[in-house]
Amino acid sequence: MAEAGPSSQNTTARPDPSKPPGIGQCGSAGCICCKHIWRGHDQFQSTTTKQRYKITQHLTCKTPSVVYIIECKKCPVQYVGKTSTTLQRRFGDYRASIKRCQHRPIADHFNQKSHTINDLIIYPIKQVCGYKALKKEQDHWIRELRTFDHGLNLESYKHDLETDKIKFCGEGDPSPKKRKKLQKKRQSVFSPETEERLSECEDALREGQQAASQVYDKLTEISSRGSPSSSFLALKNKISNLKGCNPTKTVYIGLFGKTGAGKSSLINALTNENQLLPSGGLYACTSVFVHVQANTETDKYKAHIEFISKEEWQSELHFLLEILSDSDDDESQKMRKKTADDDDMEKMAEEKIKAIYGIEGLRKSYSELVGCKQFPEVPKKCKKTLVFDTAKELSQNIGCYIRSDKKSEQQFWPLVKRVTIYLPNSPALLEGIVLVDLPGAGDANKHRDEMWKECLSLCSSVWIVNDINRVLSEKVANEIFDKTLRTIAGGGECHNITFVCTKTDIINPEEIKENYNFTDMDFQTESDDEDPQEYETLEKQACVRFRNDIAKDEINSIFKEKAKKLLLGDEGNSDDFFDVYTVSSQEFRRIEQGRSSFLDRDDTGIPSLMEQIKKLYVSHSVKEVKDYISEVSGTISYIHSSNDVHSARVNFSNTKEFNRLEKELLLTCTNLNISLNKVNTALHEHLWKGAKTAQKDCLENARKNALEPTWKDNRGHHRTLKALCRNYGFFRSSNGNTIDLNHALSEPMYKNMNDTFMTTFGSGGSRSSIKGQLASFQENFITDELLKSYRKEDKRYLRLVYIRTEQRKLRKHLEKYLIEKKKLIYNAISDSIRDTIKPTYQECTEIHGKCAFIGIQKKLKDQIELSKNDMFRKAMDEMLKEFSQLQKHLLHEIKTQMRTSLRVALHQIPDDLTDLPDVTEEIEMMQRCCDSLELQVF
């Protein structure tokens, strides 16, 4: 039997005082929820205390804003929940969660062995008005029924139990032994705060979709009576789009790290798969972009492979053979031991050719290789999808597309752009979350290099993954911050940098105790009656925790301020821009497999990272749903306020309000223009100063950062220079280091303007940033106080609500545009310099032979010297031009779009929109949604 969807549901029911108290049936034929509801009862019983309680209202699954109970027939245990929407919709979410095997409290319980959804009983116990009152009532019943120590709320309220926010009813706090037993009873992946926020978000979304659906049905009924006008049809079409809208946003998390840092093992642990991605070994394993995300459609494991084109591979092959040819010509190479640095390009070329053509490919010419191999594994459309029943099968079959460590097998990873892996039933991955394993290896294919930069700009969070034993001694993190992550400062979605220290289980307690002069007493492990094995476990645990704390403190002290400047600027005011986690993927996997482990589950750090992923998902989901609820609320408010448009008193009042708000709008635009003019002036001053420095030091900066090798002689560096020229001034080596000649030349300009730029474009939302000024405009144009003063004047009040929601929609549009434009503005300097030198880069790729290094170096130096008088001034002008375009666009959009919204709400409601349906009930539904989301609309 089909489940009733939002469009087929009746309007939301309210308790009927004429009906007897208790749990009733909703009346909808085929209601799935009613099959699980405890109908006909006017009381319920605690499964823990056996005490009975009366239900004093008539409640059904369609009663909104209720506290409810879920019971398990088999255990039996109870769960106390709340929903601002109806129980019917909340049950629909539970049903979907159980079906998808999501790792959430209720789904986890009813997906246990011997359990099914048929064991679930659900029923409302009280309707409560107002979100805060609803939350208070839920807390009361959690305490009263003791569902946090004997029920399913234990998982959700574990954190509160640990921090003494929830007390035992009549018994005081549990003993430490009992507390530990309770905490181990069920393992929660996610915190109660995050889980509750996600449920509230889902509630609001369903309620908004239902309200839009009900309004659409009412408009359809009116339009069936005659020929609707164009204005009416446009409004109906807008509601139709909102009815079917499901706002989602893909959230990318990018993982950086050197070979052996533990990125793949970390992803395996987070996704609860043992060997999904290759890890360990002596060689680099993951050699392509690997996206890992949830498969929410089926229970299959799926891999989608994207290949480079035939033309791209032929171009790359030509260059790889050229590298090896240069190596053969370099007689001095044969007379010495090669270093890791100057052997880098040659090794990369050999590995790629051997992977595709075997070792005999190294002895063949370009024409022989192009003609001798066909690749049936690469379809003509350059895309391929593989489907498997298990992760093991998937891992075995995709190895040749992503791995560079299986030397005995033919591999296809050099032909691959990206592999997207879809996993069912992953504890950390919800719909829309994508973990991106970013390869650190260098690439001779400039299209993949561009893809690398583009992928980085999509990431909402960037994780720097490093071995904890090397984290403070290596320069890797500094290089990532100083070179790689400047891309996210110049544009993109990123608003968080997370440092992940791996392999915390690898520890020498004696070394820790000796280095830090700590005794057993300091670690609180001294005991006369401990057996040696238990003592060793306690000692290792204590040392791991101590080293973890030391690492977190030192990393915070070194990198937190850098991260703030990178993401927020000097005046940023966000609290969640930088995090540090210490993890052991190995110990976590042992625990999940039921094997012996010396660390507790929480001490592995993996559950905390899972929680961070879900927090990121929830924060993005809430933002998207808020924008959706705002638009639905505004549209329904507009419909409700349209019926009295011809009243003379109303028209006079509206005209007066229009004039007042128009003046406010013009004043806002004037102030924004003044502010952006100041930024333009400051940028001009800083760029001019930087340009003069860049002009003076350009040859030295080019020599130091790109044109000359870091070792004593020049042997082998011509290959790196040629790769640099082939990619128009940018090259990423196999160890992840980057050489960027364009940025090296423009660096003095960036240094001078970075503070002003990041303050202006920072993601923290300070009042001096553009984002902060847009937020201030949202808060101050139509204030809560203004709406409160008009609340009694129902129609005008709702017109202002409509204007406010249109303003929020405009703000979202402008913030999206700001992210895109920020990247163009920031990169305008280095892109301009790249374009100036581009013809020379192309010429340098044609230089061959023994004197290639000197020839390339001289050509680049000559071009830099020849261009320096105009090159930096032109770069400055390009950046200022892009900023001026942004300034004009912002002012134009705010002025024209808001004027249109004011006219539509207060002046130009068409004559044929004055006989619209009554949407009072839907207005109340949207007010509940906004209340639960703490969204300031009404």
TrEMBL record:
Dynamin N-terminal domain segment(s): 253-480
The membrane-spanning stretches of this chain are none
> Biased composition, Polar residues: where in the chain?
1-13
In its UniProt record, a GO molecular function of this protein is: GTPase activity
Q: Which residues form the GIY-YIG domain?
A: 66-106
Q: Where is this region: Disordered?
A: 1-21, 170-190
A Pfam family that the UniProt record links to this protein: GIY-YIG
Protein name per Swiss-Prot or TrEMBL:
Nuclear GTPase SLIP-GC-like
Q: Which organism is it from?
A: Albula glossodonta
